[in-house]
Specification:
Helix content: 55-70%
Oligomer: single chain
Largest sheet: none
Structural class: mainly alpha
Number of strands: 0
Shape: globular
Radius of gyration: 21 Å
Length: about 400
Amino acid sequence: MHTRTSPRSTPVTERALAPDLARGMMLLLIAIAHVPYFLYTAPAGRVGVHPTEGNVADKIAQAFTLVVVDARVYTMFGFLFAYGIGQMYARQVARGADPGAVRRLLRRRHLWMIAFGAVHAALLWQGDIIGVYGLIGLLMVPLFFTRSDRTLTVWTAVLLSLAAASSVLTVALSSLVPDQDAVVPADQQRLSIAEPDYLASLVERMPVWITGLVGGLFGLALPAAFLMGLLAARHRILDEPGRHLVLLRRLAIWGIGVGWVSGVMLAVRHVGVSDIGSESALMSLHFFAGTFTGVGYAAAFGLLAHRLSGRSLTASSPVRWVSALGRRSLSGYLAQSLVWGPVLAAWGLGLGAQLSSWSVLLVAVAVWVATVVVAAVMERRGLRGPAEVALRRLTYRAER
């Protein structure tokens, strides 16, 4: 008679390289995506929060961020988040855990993620994404987790079709509504950052976080990326990239290619090289294409992991260091906020007022490098990330 066991956490030795490597590099993209928000004294354009002023180095930094980073990171994270859920479920069930107990564990984990996100937003950063993914997981897992591959594929196509229709509608309407009449998104995003009083900044942060929490669910891109991640986890395309090389190459080439083309069009418009199209239309296309680019990035790291699979990677290898950060991605993500707010915001040291697009990008890279080094040291000492430890204890507590 087979005895079901209680779910337990996954040992590091059982983890695949590709997802952790992708998560570690994703944190670099997240850092680059977030820091422009903290240039709170610079006049912002309609393209995200990128300043309308700056020298050649600033324009290069803005163009790079628009092409490579903006509207790509969150869908990549959504894909990897769902992939991790699929990995976790498969491992627990393979060890003999009851499938129903694992789904209850996932529900508790997602509820705690929402709580983590709320605290993160209240204390430091209104653009928190932990709560957004917790909410998506809380709602999407019961609806789709046990559905067939065909159902996941159909619903992914439906969500992407709706997102495409929304993008086309925006393009059509942009010819009727001049760009200068639209609301600049940076105004609301920067209210808490430009607020010198910390308690007042908290009041400004929470409504923005709540709006983002709901918007992430109904924005269609993240739910679609989530379903693609679940489907990919079932077929272990990142765990066993050698078996899926053709698919991974297609996802990487077409996903990244489409996104970078739309990014280049938006970048040349923003930096003033060309007046091609309207910003509203280009932004809409850019965000839609970003769904595929995020998945393309994940596929590219799967290909890289396959290339490295035949090599002996030492503990001092940069790949191992970045993967170590990927295994502590929640801690790494929160560590970034401990710099952005206290160092860059007006309620902290206010250094964001002294920086520009190129210099704040260097700050983002430097902070990411620091988290990589810390993660590598923790890996050598066998230490897990503090945020991962806290979330794991809260999630598994009822199973003990």
